Protein backbone atom coordinates (compact mmCIF):
# COMPACT_ATOMS: atom_id res chain seq x y z
CA UNK A 1 0.00 0.00 0.00
CA UNK A 2 2.89 2.33 0.78
CA UNK A 3 4.24 1.80 -2.75
CA UNK A 4 0.80 2.51 -4.23
CA UNK A 5 0.59 5.85 -2.44
CA UNK A 6 4.10 6.81 -3.57
CA UNK A 7 3.31 5.75 -7.16
CA UNK A 8 0.24 8.00 -7.21
CA UNK A 9 1.78 11.05 -5.51
CA UNK A 10 5.31 11.27 -6.97
CA UNK A 11 4.22 12.24 -10.53
CA UNK A 12 2.03 15.03 -9.09
CA UNK A 13 4.76 16.91 -7.22
CA UNK A 14 7.83 18.98 -8.13
CA UNK A 15 10.01 17.33 -5.47
CA UNK A 16 9.32 13.56 -5.64
CA UNK A 17 12.35 12.82 -3.47
CA UNK A 18 10.57 14.55 -0.54
CA UNK A 19 7.55 12.22 -0.68
CA UNK A 20 7.51 10.15 2.50
CA UNK A 21 4.89 7.66 3.71
CA UNK A 22 4.93 6.53 7.35
CA UNK A 23 2.80 3.62 8.52
CA UNK A 24 1.17 3.41 11.95
CA UNK A 25 -0.50 0.09 12.60
CA UNK A 26 -2.93 -0.45 15.48
CA UNK A 27 -5.30 -3.27 16.45
CA UNK A 28 -8.04 -2.61 13.91
CA UNK A 29 -6.68 0.22 11.76
CA UNK A 30 -3.70 1.19 9.63
CA UNK A 31 -2.86 4.88 9.22
CA UNK A 32 -0.66 6.01 6.35
CA UNK A 33 0.83 9.47 6.94
CA UNK A 34 1.83 11.17 3.70
CA UNK A 35 4.41 13.93 3.89
CA UNK A 36 5.46 16.09 0.93
CA UNK A 37 7.49 19.27 0.39
CA UNK A 38 5.63 22.37 1.62
CA UNK A 39 5.55 23.84 -1.90
CA UNK A 40 3.86 20.67 -3.22
CA UNK A 41 1.13 20.56 -0.57
CA UNK A 42 -1.38 22.37 -2.79
CA UNK A 43 -0.80 19.97 -5.65
CA UNK A 44 -1.46 16.94 -3.44
CA UNK A 45 -4.59 18.44 -1.88
CA UNK A 46 -5.96 20.03 -5.07
CA UNK A 47 -8.78 22.51 -5.47
CA UNK A 48 -11.37 21.95 -2.74
CA UNK A 49 -9.50 18.76 -1.78
CA UNK A 50 -10.39 16.92 -4.97
CA UNK A 51 -6.96 15.35 -5.55
CA UNK A 52 -6.66 14.27 -1.90
CA UNK A 53 -10.14 12.76 -2.04
CA UNK A 54 -9.28 10.86 -5.23
CA UNK A 55 -6.06 9.50 -3.70
CA UNK A 56 -7.97 8.40 -0.60
CA UNK A 57 -10.64 6.70 -2.74
CA UNK A 58 -8.02 4.63 -4.58
CA UNK A 59 -6.17 3.72 -1.36
CA UNK A 60 -9.38 2.76 0.47
CA UNK A 61 -10.54 0.63 -2.48
CA UNK A 62 -7.18 -1.14 -2.66
CA UNK A 63 -7.26 -1.78 1.10
CA UNK A 64 -10.85 -2.99 1.25
CA UNK A 65 -9.73 -6.62 1.11
CA UNK A 66 -7.83 -6.25 4.39
CA UNK A 67 -9.48 -6.85 7.74
CA UNK A 68 -8.31 -3.51 9.11
CA UNK A 69 -9.67 -0.03 8.41
CA UNK A 70 -7.34 2.08 6.24
CA UNK A 71 -6.76 5.82 6.81
CA UNK A 72 -4.66 8.27 4.80
CA UNK A 73 -3.51 11.51 6.44
CA UNK A 74 -1.65 14.28 4.66
CA UNK A 75 0.72 15.92 7.15
CA UNK A 76 3.01 18.92 6.90
CATH topology-level fold name = GMP Synthetase, Chain A, domain 3
Q: How would you spell out the order of helices and strands?
A: HEEHHE
- Terminal Cα span: 20 Å
H/I helix tally: 3
Number of strands: 3
Tell me, briefly, the overall form: globular
Order of strands, main sheet, comes to 1-2-3
Q: How confident is the prediction overall: mean pLDDT?
A: 94
Structural class: alpha+beta
- Total of domains: 1
The Rg value, from CA coordinates, equals 12 Å
Approximately what portion of the residues adopt beta-strand conformation?
Answer: 25-35%
Architecture (CATH level 2) name:
2-Layer Sandwich
Query: Would you identify the regions where 5 or more consecutive residues have pLDDT less than 50?
Result: none
CATH superfamily: K homology (KH) domain
Tell me the name of the CATH class: Alpha Beta
Helix content: 25-40%
Which descriptors apply to this entry?
76 residues, alpha+beta, GMP Synthetase, Chain A, domain 3, 3-stranded mixed beta sheet, 3 helices, 3 strands
Description:
This protein is α+β, with helices and mostly antiparallel strands. It has one domain: K homology (KH) domain (GMP Synthetase, Chain A, domain 3, 2-Layer Sandwich). It is 34% helix and 26% strand. The protein has three helices and three strands. The chain has helices spanning 2-9, 41-45, 50-62; strands at residues 20-25, 29-35, 69-75. The protein has a three-stranded mixed β-sheet with strand order 1-2-3, with helices on one face. It is globular. It starts with a helix and ends with a strand.
